[in-house]
Every structure is written in C-alpha cells, then in structure tokens.
Amino acid sequence: MANSSLSLSSLSLGGPRAVATTAAWQDARSSSSFFHCKSPASASKFGGSSLMRSSSSRGINDAKMNGVKARQPLRVTAVSAASHREFVLKDFHARRALKIISGLQNFNSDSVASVVTAAEKGGATHVDIACDPELVKLAISLTRLPVCVSAVDPEAFLTAVEAGAHMVEIGNYDSFYSTGRTFSSEEVTLAESLEWEGVDIIQTEGGTSSDPSRPGVHGLIEKAVPTLAAAYSISRAIKIPVMCASGVSIITAPMAIAVGAAGVGVGSAVNKLNDQVAMIAEVRSIANALGLPSHASKTNLAAAGV
C-alpha cells in the first residue's frame, strides 16, 4: 500500500468520509478494482469518522475494516501521480492544513464562489465544496488550492473528479444529525483498520453535538470540545494525520494542533458571514493563528518557483 493515498475523517456522530485526489479517480474508471466505503457508520463517544482518499490512490478490493462489511463501492485504482498526491497532502504533513468548507449541501454558486475566494485570498490551504461538477469548475477557476468535494454517495464523485476535483470525501453526516441519524461506537477501531488499508487523513467533527453553556471565548472552547477530544484520542491510535472540523474557530484552531491534529476544517465561522471582506478577514485570522503565510507571501513564493 506504499502508493495509496486515502484519508479518513472522524465525526462526532458521523460515518466514514472518503476523499480521493483526481489522478487516481480518473485511473479508477479503467480499473475493475473497488474501494468499499461503509455507509453511515460508527462513532466513538468523542466523535465519528469520515474517510478521505486522494485520487492518486491504489484500488482496494473488499476492505474488511475489522470484519465490518462495506456497503457503498467507491471506485479507485493505482497511483499515477505522486506529485499530485503531494500537492494535496503536503500541508497535512506539515501539520498546518486549513480547509475552508462551503457546505455539503450548499449548491448556491454565488455562495460557493464567495467561500472559495475567501479561502484563496485569506491564506487557506484547501477548499471543500459540495459534490457538483459545475461547482468544481467554478472553484478551480477561482483558486489554485486543492479542491475537495464532499458527498454521502460515492457514486456521485465521478463527474466531479472529471471536472477537476483534487479530493473526494465521503461520510460527512454533520448536516444530517437533526434528522435523527445516530451511530455506534467503533470509530477508533475503524480508523485503525482504514489506516492499514491506506488511509491518509482522519477528520474529527462534533461541533453540532455540543451545546455551549456560555457565550464568548468560553462558549467557543466548549463547542470545539467533541472534535478536540476525538482528535486527541484518534491521533494517538494512528500514525496518519488527523484533522479537526466542526465547531473550530480562531480560538480553538491552535488548540487542535496542540492536541495532535495536523490541520483544521472551518465552515460556519466563514460561510455564514454575509460580507466577502469579512470572510477573507476571518480566514486570514485563522491562518495567522496557525502560522500560515499570507496570500501575498504565497504569491511571491509561487512566482519565485518555491
């Protein structure tokens, strides 16, 4: 599995999410191999899990995941572009990834464009959008950052990857908790199994399951407790990078790194703002808190070929 690139993310009440870079996904179309991703799955008391895979990944046939049968087939194949994989994963390996999320169910092109622009100009390292080929084309026209697409149906990824998405992510049930979806407590074991199969990243979530008792900084910390606890627990059980998302803010982003995360995913702190300048400022503030270079610095480094 030396060439595989698969990432698992953990949600407080969620199932596995798969993310794949486009190179492998395109290769997958000519392969008979399948990666089997579990549909709404288990969650630990600290958090659930989402699975991510880069599209430069090798196919996995009938992953056993500690005896848990997978339900949804996600088609992937042999690695064809190590440089593509590095483009997607380098900031996770540097433990400073900042993924700005427009929303799993946000198909409004104007809203997505605003979030992507804020991510680009604010100094983020990745953007995460709904799984839609037209949104992918829009995103890659606005940013040079790796574009991740999220969905709960792995079969929806093909057209998004064909449109240019760099990663695919399945298993984010954060927006479905209010419908009554609940999960069992197998996430750490599942994370260990998927790491063995070639997973690259585990993303922890859980902000929607917390209910802060106080406003202000105290409330922001309370809201992030589930995802921080999951990151702490899971990062000590596996060797691949762990990413915190859901309930993360400028206050808690550095805490995520301190407890063992390799990066953070930020959604509502940015996408709920109505002003483009405010969005950019929020992304910039979180990027600064993580020690990321400014957009201007990135532009200068790119121009210098660094």
From TrEMBL:
GO CC annotation terms, alphabetical: plastid
- What range does the record give for the signal peptide? none
> Which domain of life does the protein's organism represent?
Eukaryota
Membrane spanning residue stretches:
none
Question: Where is this chain primarily localised?
Answer: plastid
Tell me the compartments it is located in: Plastid
Q: Which UniProt keywords apply?
A: Plastid
Q: Which family does it belong to?
A: Belongs to the ycf23 family.
Alphabetical list of PANTHER family matching this protein? PTHR36895, YCF23 PROTEIN
Protein name per Swiss-Prot or TrEMBL: Uncharacterized protein ycf23
